[in-house]
TrEMBL record:
Domain ABC transmembrane type-1, first and last residues per copy: 91-306
Taxonomic lineage: Archaea, Methanobacteriati, Methanobacteriota, Stenosarchaea group, Halobacteria
PROSITE patterns xrefs: ABC_TM1
GO BP terms: transmembrane transport
Gene source species: Halocatena salina
CDD domains reported in the protein's UniProt record: TM_PBP2
Protein's UniProt name: Sugar ABC transporter permease
PANTHER family: ABC TRANSPORTER PERMEASE PROTEIN
């Protein structure tokens, strides 16, 4: 009798196990696995595997082409980087570029969006003109501004000459070079922030503006006290995207000079990393600088992710 009961429980367990397995295999997760699983593995190896390998290399003393000595892992490269004046200058330039570019783009984009939010003729055409530079690549933008900043034949110096101002070597003078780079990037990306803010403004009901006008508030006061505070989410999203673009300025600087050495006064962590890794073949030192740049990027992204988490979007 006891044997029959045990056999019955075993059969029931077997049926239950098979039912659960069939339920799992027929689930959406497993059935969709061929579509997202392969890209997920490839991305994981290419991106996160690369990041992990870079961090591992930065803990060695690897220099030049050859086998990596994994027997001695330490933080010597980070200590060396933190004591180098060239790294300090590159970090400061990266930070100044990041903050100035992002802040001015946000303010200018908001100003343009508020202007275009009003009703007037040709505003669609003006909107297109401001957005057009966004469609250009960093390479095209860099070549354009090399010509614009040319000390002898550049358009800007020609205009300055009309007012009796001597030509300025914008890219050759360290006092002007970083500001010139930031200005060129603002020219390219302020249209993007304008579109983000314009979309935010048009999502706000017009009844709020009308109610504030009935209460006697001026147009400036309505925007400052009622409209702009509601653009917080648009500001956060635009700021994160702009900061990521700022950290990718390496492409712009590389196209500007055709090498890893940017104009004097514009060296950033990305160009310094590439110069150390590929010109000087200091793999471990370059990897340490790359890791520092990664930490800076995570510092930019993390507040945004936290904000999205607080809003319930993650």
């Amino acid at each position: 009798m006891a044997t029959h009961e045990a056999t019955g429980e075993s059969v029931a367990d077997s049926v239950g196990w098979r039912t659960k397995l069939r339920y799992v295999l027929n689930g959406d997760f497993v059935r969709s696995l061929p579509y997202w699983g392969i890209p997920f593995v490839i991305m994981g190896i290419a991106v996160y595997g690369g990041i992990g390998y870079n961090i591992a290399i930065s803990l060695t003393d690897t220099a030049g082409i050859g086998p990596v000595d994994w027997s001695s892992l330490d933080l010597e490269m980070y200590s060396q980087a933190l004591s180098e004046p060239s790294v300090h200058r590159a970090a400061v330039n990266t930070f100044v570029l990041l903050v100035a570019f992002t802040a001015i783009c946000l303010v200018l984009g908001l100003f343009l969006a508020v202007l275009l939010d009003r009703q007037f003729r040709f505003k669609e055409q003006i909107q297109m003109i401001y957005l057009l530079p966004m469609s250009l690549s960093f390479v095209v933008t860099a070549k354009l501004w090399v010509w614009m900043y040319d000390a002898e034949f550049g358009v800007i110096n020609v205009v300055l000459g009309l007012f009796g101002i001597d030509p300025i070597n914008f890219l050759g003078n360290p006092s002007f070079s970083l500001a010139a780079i930031i200005f060129a990037l603002i020219w390219q990306f302020s249209g993007y922030t304008m579109i983000v803010y314009l979309a935010g403004l048009r999502s706000i009901p017009g009844s709020q503006f009308e109610a504030a006008q009935i209460d006697g508030a001026s147009t400036v006061r309505i925007y400052l006290r009622v409209i702009i505070p509601q653009l917080k989410a648009a500001s956060v999203s635009a700021a994160v995207v702009l900061m990521v673009f700022a950290l990718k300025t390496f492409t712009f600087l590389y196209a500007l000079t055709g090498g890893y050495t940017p104009p004097k006064g514009t060296d950033i962590l990305a160009t310094l990393m590439m110069r150390e890794a590929f010109n000087n073949v200091q793999w471990a030192y370059g990897a340490a600088i790359a890791t520092m740049l990664l930490i800076m990027a995570l510092g930019v992204i993390s507040p945004y992710l936290y904000y999205q988490h607080k809003q319930g979007s993650l």
